[in-house]
Amino acid sequence: MPLETDHSHPVTIACIQFEPKIGELDANLDAIEDRVRQAHAKGARLIVLPELADSGYVFDSAEELARLAQPIPDGRSARRLIALSSELEVYIVSGLAEAAGGTFYNSAMLCGPDGYIGTYRKMHLWYRENLFFEKGNLGLPVFDTPLGRIGIAICYDGWFPETFRQLAVKGAEVICVPTNWVPMPDQDPQDEAMSNILHQAAAHSNGLFIACADRVGTERGQPFIGQSLIIDATGWPLAGPASHENEDILYAQITPAEVSAKRKLNEFNDIFGDRRTDVYG
């Protein structure tokens, strides 16, 4: 059942940008715990980690993925994050490789002080993910927490405006985005990342706070671009973009209940109220 909660208090959110190592589950979980503890010490209440943060990303076979993926919430990675969030009384969103019977999903789990809250399974699979994972089948859930109404998207989901619009229509205030962004075709690496442009536009056009936690490093020849970002519901950055190459933790303070006010552009215009649903649904 949804919680009756008050989202009017400021919340410190942290995005952890680090370099998971492919196949090194214990080392990755140790790195996650260390950085979550750092973020907690700085006052973070909502902490976002990258996509597939426990396993690494570039699998060389289905057998390798099968060795690394685990159930949610009963697998080793999920249980360790749940215990950590309970101990520190924080909320954690982390990308995880999920095993559900004989099926695998590129997933993200939300947990908090009272334990497991929910799972999102990535709907839009990127490139070779299609060889290993099934498309998400849990829709776009919104989780009502004492901090705010939280939605989740993963990486390539952000290329689809429908992702954010559906979450906004369902009442989301904050979207957490575990991601492993890679260079886009024809993109000058010195220019602003396409990923950041898309997510700033989504934050502005939907009046949503969006927190993107990317990874860095090169894994089996695949580079990742970093540049994690926390975006205000107006579309302007609150923190970041982070480094292209170095590990980092971004912090920003948000007040989820302010999304309604931030959607009002002036006395006549409201980006939700002005929608012509009579024309386009």
Largest beta-sheet details = 6 strands, mixed
Structural class: alpha/beta
How do the strands of the widest beta sheet line up side by side? 5-4-3-2-1-14
Helix content: 25-40%
What's the architecture, going by CATH?
Answer: 4-Layer Sandwich
Radius of gyration: 18 Å
Low-confidence sequence ranges = none
Distance between the termini: 28 Å
In N-to-C order, the SSE pattern is: EHEHHEEEHEEHEHEEEEEEHH
Mean pLDDT: 95
CATH level 4 superfamily: Carbon-nitrogen hydrolase
Shape: globular
Percentage of residues in DSSP E strands: 25-35%
InterPro entries: Aliph_Amidase/BUP, C-N_Hydrolase, C-N_Hydrolase_sf
GO molecular function: hydrolase activity, acting on carbon-nitrogen (but not peptide) bonds, in linear amides
Protein name: Hydratase
Organism: Antarcticimicrobium luteum
Can you tell me about this structure?
This is Hydratase. GO terms for molecular function: hydrolase activity, acting on carbon-nitrogen (but not peptide) bonds, in linear amides. It holds the Pfam family CN_hydrolase. With 281 residues, the protein is α/β, with parallel strands linked by helices. It has a single domain (11-261), classed as Nitrilase/N-carbamoyl-D-aminoacid amidohydrolase. Helix content is 25%, strand content 25%. The chain is built from eight helices and 14 strands. The strands form three sheets. Strands 5-4-3-2-1-14 form a six-stranded mixed sheet. A six-stranded mixed sheet has the order 6-7-8-9-12-13, covered by helices on one side. It has a two-stranded antiparallel sheet with strand order 10-11. Strand 3 and strand 4 (103-112) form a beta hairpin. Helix 1 packs parallel to helix 3. The radius of gyration is 18 Å and the shape is globular.
